[in-house]
Amino acid sequence: MANINNKKESLDFVYDFYVKMKRNKINLAYEGEITHQITKAFTSLTETNMAREEDASSVQKKVFHVMVECLQNISKHAECSPDASGKKDGRGIFMVSKGDTEYNVTTGNIILNDKVEHLAQMLENINSKDKDGLNQLYKKQMREGHISERGGAGLGFIDIARKTGEKLIYSFIKIDEKTSFFVLTSTISRIKE
Amino acid sequence: MRVLKIQGSDDTPKVILDADSNTFEISGRSLPEDVVAFYDPILEWIGEYSQAPLDKTVFNFKLEYFNTASSKLLLDVLLKLEDMYDAGHDVLVKWHYPDDDEDMQEAGEEYADIVEVPFEQVSYSID
Fold first, then answer.
1. According to the CATH classification, is domain A28-189 in 2.60.120.40?
2. In whole angstroms, what is the distance from residue A185 CA to residue A171 CA?
3. A151 or B124: which leads in pLDDT
4. Does B101 sit within 8 Å of A58, measured CB to CB?
């Protein structure tokens, strides 16, 4: 009997989850490993939806771009969950929400505490710059940076900021002595400039 | 010299590097799973070609989309072309962008700013 009650509770959870997604206008939510196949599937799904919504092509391109960079960030940088074996697993949460005036792309993944300070400084530096400053920073990083083992060039966040023209909204939530949860939201205006 | 041809896909660009038919082109979308592995043969080909290039090399970029990791490798391609130009060869880069794509136009301007090689921006319209 207890078992059946538990299962009923989980059904209630499904409805609760559905209502919350609707309320927050989330049209895509995923938790798990972010692979190249997943990246391709999500971007192509969103492209199809946006084309149907008749968003301006410049808006569609920006959303596509932000999604790719965010998904690749998770697949390259996400650390494993605290209870797992210690290897990077490229897992995280990924959400896209659509309001009347904007799209929001949100990612969440685990990172090591000793990387928090460096990452926070990098994001603050990006947020302190205007478009010209971001262009200079991008050029400098493209010239001087190297492609890391995991295939990143350190350009993703800079490019998201300059393409969207919006500040990066982020937060670090401490999980334990070793790890934190890093959440980042990028906003793309649906109103054509 | 051998021809380098790569079919385009939804995440990799179409590449034609063919000295005999005077065609040098990278077009389409670029977000390969492994950017370094994808661009290595291209960089190697240009390296070989630059030993004995044609009198004039017109290199066409006609990209719809590229991710930031690709942007770094595209710069490496352009730097190879700059080396050729520095060595006294006639090189022209043509950067094609859709006329409604400001970001792609700006990307071209950015590269033109970084590399010292003759650079032409060409807009085209998509129906």
1. no
2. 9
3. B124
4. yes
